[in-house]
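Case 280 in the screening queue. Each case pairs one protein sequence with one candidate compound; here the compound is NAP. For every case the pipeline is the same: read the inputs, emit a complex structure as tokens, and attach any notable structural observations.

Predict complex for case 280.
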Amino acid sequence: MNKYLQDTVTLHNGVNMPWFGIGVFKVEEGPELVNAVKFAIKHGYRSIDTAAIYGNEESVGQAIREGMKEAGISREELFVTSKVWNSDLGYETTLAAYDLTLKKLGLDYFDLYLIHWPVEGKYKEAWQALETLYMHGKVKAIGVSNFQVHHLEDLMKDAEVIPMVNQVEYHPKLTQKGVQLYCQEHGIQLEAWSPLMQGQLLDHPVLKEIADQYNKTVPQIILRWDLQNGVVTIPKSTKEHRIVENSSIFDFTLTVDDMERINSLNENHRIGPDPDNIDF
Ligand SMILES: NC(=O)c1ccc[n+]([C@@H]2O[C@H](COP(=O)([O-])OP(=O)(O)OC[C@H]3O[C@@H](n4cnc5c(N)ncnc54)[C@H](OP(=O)(O)O)[C@@H]3O)[C@@H](O)[C@H]2O)c1
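Case 280 output:
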């Protein structure tokens, strides 16, 4: 398992999703972003994660078109994810948001479309819209983001389609064991956002010690740990050397003991918002 950068996990509806990809949060429209996504495609990444709220869809779309051409690959070889923002949650508004995001990216379909946050009282209607998009063949897979177990339970009471993915904050200080177990039991693939804790774990002594043992860097250790824990991961970098570094994790395996050492660093510590207390 996880021997190659382009290895995929099969979601519960049969769609293959790369285990590894690039995220583009906090990168503005423009050449830095276009280049980052193109570097990623050039170096073998096949999965790109964006969202309407990132406000950078046009550059991501440009990079996808140019990157595919330069790498000589087709749209079907890429896996593109986007997310509906909170202000668009609702049946008609979510359908409209999907079309607008597609148009901004210049694509015909997304591989994965997610509800970005579980806004109380709004996510069920939005889910119905995602089900409509899915059943009409407009999107390959649908899922959620930042859903806790109780949100998933509530959603699934009325859902016709079980989410294929739940993308949550996940790193060595926030391992979300309960969410992961629930997702495993229901065939929902867990995906990590801010896997590197936005760069805040680079000097962690235990991670540094483990990194030295394997002749790897701390980001490489964390990203390998994600995969060995069965979690899809999408680290963000705009720098070519780091884009290469982050994906150079398919030539080693962490031992069970080292996996446990990293698992035990959990402090239930979030750097992003708590999904149960969102005011946006
Ligand atoms: N669903 C959600 O609510 C949600 C929320 C947040 C993020 N996300 C998604 O998850 C993706 C990843 O999360 P993130 O961007 O928040 O954080 P991240 O991937 O944990 O960390 C990104 C930060 O780490 C730095 N970095 C990357 N590789 C490095 C390396 N090898 N060595 C040293 N520093 C390195 C980057 O700087 P440089 O760019 O300068 O290299 C950047 O500052 C996002 O881009 C987005 O697509 C989703």
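Case 280 observations:
- The longest helix spans residues 57-71.
- Residues 93 and 228 are 38 Å apart (CA to CA).
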